[in-house]
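Now for one record:
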Amino acid sequence: MRRISRITVAGAATASLALALSACGGTSTESSSSDSKGDKGLAIAYDVGGKGDQSFNDAAFAGLEQAKKEFGYETQDVEPTEGETDADKQQRLESLAKQGYNPVVGVGYAYATAVKGAAEKFPDTTFGIVDDSTVESKNVADLVFSEEEASYLAGVAAAKSTKSNVVGFVGGVDIPLIHKFQAGFEQGVKDTNPKAKVLSQYLTQTAEEGGFSSPDKGKTAAEGQIEKKADVVYAAAGLSGQGVIEAAAANKVWAIGVDSDQYNQEALAKYKDAILTSAMKDVAKAVYNLAKSVEDGKPETGIVRGDLKTGEVSLSNSNPKFADNAELQEAIETAKEKIINGEIKVKSS
């Protein structure tokens, strides 16, 4: 389902701008005089961890940067605040819409209630939410991914790389979204090497406890698994995953990154030799595509899914030790083809 609409911008009210700045830890804006339509473009509101997580949020920012460069319009990205409520999130999104941004994207499942509420109040603005399929409003694009498919391939990589027959999974928060990562990974490991054992652990029960934003928690969890002989550890934990990668590097075992190609992340450069691969989902492409659909006058709405078939989930090939391992690459490619053609049904829980 697609709808066609554009908004005309009535300049940002001073109160709205003040609200946006006070409701967040920081914002960044870019503008260009080439915006001949007179309206503002893409705005994103970050999930916990914020910009600089080298993962999920940074991928969304990359999509914003691509849209800004291509369309030459003004953008804004807004940081979360500690302990914020759904009402705070909704107020932030409404402020962005009121200022004339279109589309407005909430990065992360935690924005579901806020996006639904804001979309009802601003029916002529297109909203997006990353990693949630429950909003289903007429002016909302639910940008979701088959994370379990990329995680299955990560499981294949882990099973082919382990020497101890013990591998680890560290999830940030014990929620259905992260269960998809765990389920796919465990299935990929077991299908490839039935003798391998998977140690799985969640850092917290809720995001508010820091499961996605605490590298120290990730490091401690990974160290515990490494003590139990895990020599490949996969983290689906946002910013906390940096601690997992640090622990892997310190103990000379493999880490598998998530969401972005963490081998190439500047903040993780000193650990890159320990990053075997990353199970990626192209949040940047999804965010950019939504912005482009609005720019083209045909906004995406409803569930928009990225998977192995569309190329929006994948494994990174940046580490030469991974890319040049012919046996490993063959196993992954075979599994990928079987998933795409339906021969392998990957579990999501």
Notes: The longest strand covers residues 166-173. The two ends are 28 Å apart (CA to CA). Residues 1-38 have pLDDT under 50 and may be disordered. Residues 147-281+319-340 form a domain with the Rossmann fold fold (CATH 3.40.50.2300).
